[in-house]
Specification:
Strand order of the largest sheet: 1-8-7-4-5-6
Radius of gyration: 23 Å
Strand content: 15-25%
Largest sheet: 6 strands, mixed
Low-confidence stretches: 1-44
Number of helices: 6
Distance between the termini: 81 Å
Helix content: 25-40%
Structural class: alpha/beta
Shape: globular
CATH superfamily: Glutaredoxin
Number of domains: 1
Amino acid sequence: MTKPTEPGQRPNRRLIAAGIAGTAAVLAAVYVIVGPHGNTDDTQSCALEMELAEKAGPFATGEVAAFRPAERPLGLSELTFNDPDGNPVSIGDFQGRTILLNLWATWCAPCRKEMPALDELQADMGGEDFQVVAVNVDRGGPEKPKAFWKEIGVSRLDYYSDASNGILKDLKAKARATGLPTTILVGPSGCEIGTMYGPAEWASGEAKSLISAAMKTKAE
């Protein structure tokens, strides 16, 4: 004799299956929104920087051949550090301007080597539309890095700092910093255009051409 089905047995199985399917769908949606590395997918909000990255790509040659245009630009507006007066400032405060964000320290030999070129780049291209933002991450206060700048004749760069190394930790969490120096070209919307790991000759013709290409807007 066939054993009768217990009341509610099959409906419960259907509910369980539906619940599992629903959970999987939610997890899939979260993965798409957050991304495989836990970073916010800013493809839509960073549409301008996506276009600028594509324009800059062909100019990553010579002295800036290691520059990596962003395939999925990250929103960096919330990254914070201290301004020349020691007050908190964020990437979002530079909105509307293209910036070259450089993280450096006096104990980093490649950082020291490229600093004069960054100063020259600011002298040649700095203005309302572009600025080099060099953020020092020394832990011992501003005396040593400022003395180093004076020693090598840096005069065009504003002194930004983050003794807590919070900005470096935040970028590592976004998989955008592996060490020093790390330099990120950031667009007018506060999103990444591309990243350079390691030093570069930022006063070179190739570097200036790359930055100029990345500063072209959709209207152009």
